[in-house]
Amino acid sequence: MGRGVIPLAPDFTRSEGICPVKSKEKKLFEHKITLGKDINGNLLRKSFYSSKSRADAKRKAEKYKAQYELELLCGGEPTKPKVLFKDWAPKCLELYKKPYVKGSTYNGTYLTPVTKHLIPYFGNLPISEIRPIQIQEYINQMSKKYAPETVKKDFTILSFILQHAVENGLCQANPALRSIRIPKIERVDRMAYTQEEYDKAYAFAKDHPDGLPIMLMMETGISRSELLGLRWEDIDTKNKVLHIRQGLVAYQDLEEKTWVIEADGLKNDYRRRDIPLTDDDLIEHLQKKPRTIYVKRKGAPCEEAVTPEFVFHSPEGFPYQPNNWSNRVFFPFMRELLKVHPELPSLSPHELRHTRATLWIAQGIDPYMVARLLGHSDVKMLAKVYDHTTVDTLREAITNTKKKKEEGYEQHPIC
């Protein structure tokens, strides 16, 4: 199977009617529009057809006309109508973002906020008539419904769209000014295991049937996306190295109205890294994990051998949709862990990453090295988000450092 966009597993339910099969016997509905006049004064007319309904043909025609007028206006025609935000915003993203980012980033980071937030509010306003006060009113309203991170993202995308409108002559200046007040993003404290709690959870994972992916996340600090994107060639048990080369994500393609699983690279170049595997139990578990499974397909007379593309996959051998993996593997594991150790906190997959960072720092590993192991460009993000060191963990780190010095131990970089 090729890399990149992956066929959907049975976990996904496709919406009916998205890709209808058109019959030649169906009646075609026509809708005509007038686009203007040519240089001889003759009307420019165009017909649009649909096998569904006349309303659908009209919708196609109006969409084409809006695009036609937008392109004329961007071309400098002086007497064309004003361009509405709902017409310019999707076009702007398609031109200036879609070709340069991954599909998951385009749909999740850009298209979804524009479609679900910005267009419903600014959609019917001409680009040239949007004012700072309207943007501030939007920010204030959104702040009552959504987290500060979401509001800030909306404002950033809105400013991007309006700036490109300025550059294309659709308005004189960008109204998304620096004076717009954005809600302050507060740090959210996440939980993390202490070393004692970590040891209990890790020991439980060793004997659990679904414990291997948990062990791998706890020991290496990789994200859920990176875990589910692992292929066997990424795991070198002989040299005890884990190669992080891609992450697996799922997103809803709003244009195609379907779900897509994608494993195509990483967020940035810093995420591409090699992590040493230092626990022999983890290496042994990886070596024992079968690479071929036997699956009984629907309608098949018997089981067939399947070699999944990814190390951690669905029972049928398909790539795991990340949320499905959490619901079917991770959270059931956590519930069983708490039955045996009710004193432990229930952590999320991302909090295991926080735990690993915290314990590495507490063990005295250089923060720069920890940042490299986690795939960060510098230690700022590490200090701001991932460090959960307490007085006790700091005391333990100081004590361990003193012991190493007394024993004549010389610390070497781990990667």
Structural write-up:
- The protein is built from 14 helices and 10 strands.
- By secondary structure, the chain is of the alpha+beta class.
- The strands form 4 sheets. It has a 3-stranded antiparallel beta sheet with strand order 1-7-6. The chain has a 3-stranded antiparallel beta sheet with strand order 4-5-8.
- A hairpin with a 4-residue loop joins strand 6 and strand 7 (258-263).
- Helix 2 (85-96) runs antiparallel to helix 3, helix 2 (85-96) packs across helix 5 and helix 11 packs antiparallel against helix 12.
- The protein is globular and about 90 Å long.
- Residues 7-24, 76-80 and 409-415 have low confidence and may be disordered.
For the sheet with most strands, the description reads: 3 strands, antiparallel
CA-atom Rg in angstroms: 27 Å
Number of helices: 14
Order of helices and strands: EEEHHHHHHHHEEEEEHEEHHHHH
Shape: globular
Q: What integer is the average pLDDT?
A: 81
**Tally of strands:** 10
Class of secondary structure makeup? alpha+beta
Distance from first to last alpha carbon: 33 Å
Q: Beta-strand level of the residues, as a percent range?
A: 5-15%
- Spatial order of the strands forming the largest sheet: 1-7-6
Helical amount among residues, as a percent range?
40-55%
Which residues form runs of ≥5 with pLDDT under 50? 7-24, 76-80, 409-415
